[in-house]
Specification:
The complex is a heterodimer of chains A (about 240) and B (about 80). Chain A contains 5 helices and 11 strands, in the order βαββαβαββββαβββα. By secondary structure, chain A is of the alpha/beta class. In chain A, the strands form 2 sheets. Chain A has a 9-stranded mixed sheet, sandwiched between helices. Chain A has a two-stranded antiparallel sheet with strand order 5-8. With about 80 residues, chain B is α+β, with helices and mostly antiparallel strands. Classes of the chains: A alpha/beta (about 240), B alpha+beta (about 80). Chains A and B meet through loops of A and α1 of B.
Chain lengths: ~240, ~80
């Protein structure tokens, strides 16, 4: 299985993602350039964090118009796993591959600290090996991470098992105090209708080695790899 | 060429944290203020025939229709 990590102008977590995938996990991972138009040969994709195009206009808005995004759209509709981390999440909402949007943090502060998140849904490739209610300790680092969607949308996401992660306290309670940025319903990550496209504000790649304070982030990538291996067993003809 | 001025604002009810900060600043200076909302102004110099497509341009790119509204002013001629 081959992972791809997209670099946009202003991405700054692309190498961290490659490091986590290659060295912490031993996967094969390739770089993808924002001007590429093909994802041929890639089995799972990461849109990393950063400040693509300096966050001009809106976070992720300009990157969402990149040539690679047409290929990402096709990749997503083929049911292959796509993970947007932080700015990658913002790009996926701007590309309208994920619902809602990310707003300036309610307290206006750039929040850079470890956060607890609770796994809310296991119907995404990135959480399929986890259990609902599992807690992960992942760093956050963002100024515009307040998840916003209308109340009806939030209810429908909840109903469809599309809220992937929620901010919570160390005991797993999604309290207001544990919400670092004013996100609606403590949402830290969401999934597409089919579940294969996931975006989250916390950084799993920065929690990929015990030395970094947590290795909880590895579980997302391992889960997707396992999902792809099972998919290959189920539909061998279509496996790549 | 025609110059169109587009104003993009957050919808009423959507939290505008930077606007609130400016509100606080004004109060700190002793001014009475009910509310401040921060938006963006964009000026687009485009061929006349692009004018009718500006709404589409705002919907697709210049604004995020989920949380923002936009207003397109009458164009002026580019000199």
């Amino acid at each position: 299985m081959i992972w791809g990590v997209v670099t946009f102008p202003g991405s700054n977590c692309d190498r961290d993602c490659l490091h986590a995938l290659r060295h912490a996990l031993g996967f094969h991972a390739e770089r993808v350039w924002h001007q590429d138009r093909s994802l041929a040969g890639i089995d799972a994709l990461v849109l990393p964090g950063g400040f693509s195009y300096g966050d001009y206009l809106r976070t992720g808005a300009v990157a969402a118009t990149s040539p690679i995004m047409e290929a990402v759209r096709e990749f997503a509709s083929a049911g292959l796993p796509v993970l947007g981390i932080c700015n990658g999440f913002q790009i996926l909402t701007e590309a309208r591959l994920l619902p809602g949007t990310l707003m300036r943090n309610a307290g206006l502060r750039f929040r850079c600290r470890p956060a607890w998140v609770r796994v809310e849904s296991t119907r995404t490739p990135f959480t399929s090996s986890m259990r609902r209610g599992d807690l992960l300790h992942l760093p956050i680092a963002h100024g515009e991470g307040g998840y916003w969607a209308g109340a009806e949308e939030i209810a429908s996401l909840e109903e469809g098992g599309r809220i992937a992660f929620r901010y919570c306290d160390p005991e797993g309670l999604a309290s207001q105090e544990s919400n670092p940025n004013g996100s609606a319903a403590n949402v830290a990550g969401v999934a597409s209708v089919e579940g294969n496209v996931v975006g989250l504000m916390p950084h799993p790649e920065r929690a990929s080695e015990a030395l970094l304070g947590s290795a909880d982030g590895l579980a997302l990538f391992e889960s997707a790899a396992r999902h792809m291996a099972l998919r290959a067993v189920r539909a061998p003809g279509r496996a790549r | 060429m025609a110059v169109f001025r587009v104003t993009v604002m957050l919808k009423p009810g959507v939290l505008d944290a930077p606007g609130q900060a400016v509100e606080q600043g004004l109060r700190a200076l002793g001014y009475e203020v009910e509310r401040v909302r921060i938006g963006k102004v964009l000026e687009l110099s485009v061929p006349e025939e692009v004018g009718p497509r500006l709404d589409e341009i705002c919907e697709r790119f210049l604004a995020n229709p989920l949380v923002e509204t936009w207003r397109i002013e009458e164009p002026r001629e580019e000199r």
